[in-house]
Hints:
Layout: E1 8-12, H1 16-27, E2 31-36, H2 45-53, E3 57-60, H3 65-69, E4 73-76, H4 85-92, E5 96-99, H5 100-105, E6 112-116, H6 121-134, E7 139-143, E8 161-165, H7 168-171, E9 181-184, H8 198-206, E10 217-221, H9 225-228, E11 237-241, H10 244-249, H11 255-267, H12 271-280, E12 289-294, E13 297-301, H13 308-317, E14 322-327, H14 339-345, E15 346-352, H15 356-363, E16 369-371, H16 375-385, E17 391-394, H17 407-419
Parallel strand pairs: 1-2, 1-4, 2-3, 4-5, 6-8, 6-9, 7-8, 9-10, 10-11, 13-17, 14-15, 14-17, 15-16
Antiparallel strand pairs: 12-13
Amino acid sequence: MIGFTNKxxxxxxxxxxxxxxxxLAFQLGAQVFISENAPKEKxxxxxxxxxxxxxxxxxxxxxxxxxxxxSDLVVLSPGVFKDALPVKWAxxxxxxxxxxxxxxxxxxxxxxxxxxxSNGKTTVATLIKELMEQSGKNVCLCGNxxxxxxxxxxxxxxxxxxxxxVSSFQLETIDQFKPRIAVFLNFxxxxxxxxxxLEEYFEAKKKIFSNQDQNDxxxxxASDDWVRGCAEALKAQVFYFNSPKDLETQxxxxxxxxxxxxxxxxxxxxxxxxxxxxxxxxxxxxRLEWVRSFNGVDFINDSKATTAEASRWALTNISQPVxxxxxGREKNIDFSVLKDLVKEKVRKIIAIGEAKEKIAxxxxxxxxxxxxxxxxxxVKNAYQFAQKGDCVxxxxxxxxxxxxxxxxxxxxxxxxxxxxxxxxQVHS
Length: 428
């Protein structure tokens, strides 16, 4: 671990990850300066009190170049682009710029199991956590799943394990980050509003393996051409999941289960524990989460589906006719890859958010599309249109930030709206 005592550390961004990074850097003895682009009223009052109590300097509504240029280290929150002005200022002065995940890694005493991929990260990370807990291991699940790594790292012991969900944003600015086991689930279009093209996005994902050596493990999806192609350049021991052999011999053919099972094999977890966990696994909140059945209509919350491929998974795995609520802030991905599936399975699309016009233009040739101004309106209209035996599915394909704080808030509001549907409200 590098020394932080009396180092001048600038934290860029004071949202969830930035707050955790600031607290960690302060606890490690650094002189912390926090720079947040949003106005002060957008920051949680508890964090503002912590800043005041510890006499930490913080600025809101912009970034001060002179402060950044005099720092020893700059730590980025995941939402800050790697080519943002504060990053350019720091790099021009040869100041190290790292991610919040890298900061936490440098203070972490225990092995890390890191999971990345375009889809399925939360489900696989959660499965691994349950497998390890059932086998008697102490684990901490954090990262992109919702709780920052920096929040927990000082409470960990050498015998513990960290299960870390990591995004391309977090991997872009790693330095020494070295997971004992690195899992790359799959690769498809995502975040093209941030990465200039697929190649840049892929290179960011691949960095999960960059510091591994022969004592570490890389777990790759054998059925994904992009992911499988990583193997030749890796120094770690390579293990594959979702191979033809897996599909022939394993009871569970869900690729998320197969990925978690491969990690369990590496860790020597008993097969009976795996079977018990898989048999009892009910999924994670906001990912194909069954909400309720109401007057013969099922409601599914898949708010975490922020890509076309994630929504493909939902549509493929629902057997009923679908009334599909989708839309939000798009990430420059190609929605048209779902046109054939929509034509086959979707009775009606209800589009919301900034992407609703694009969605309507793409899918009108293959099905009925309605545009709504709010999620509340979308839920009511979906229920009115749905017939007994249908499924109303929220699976947005888009980020949530045009209408909600995050995908969790979007999913929770959807569930509240579903539970408040009036029993006497007319539907087909």
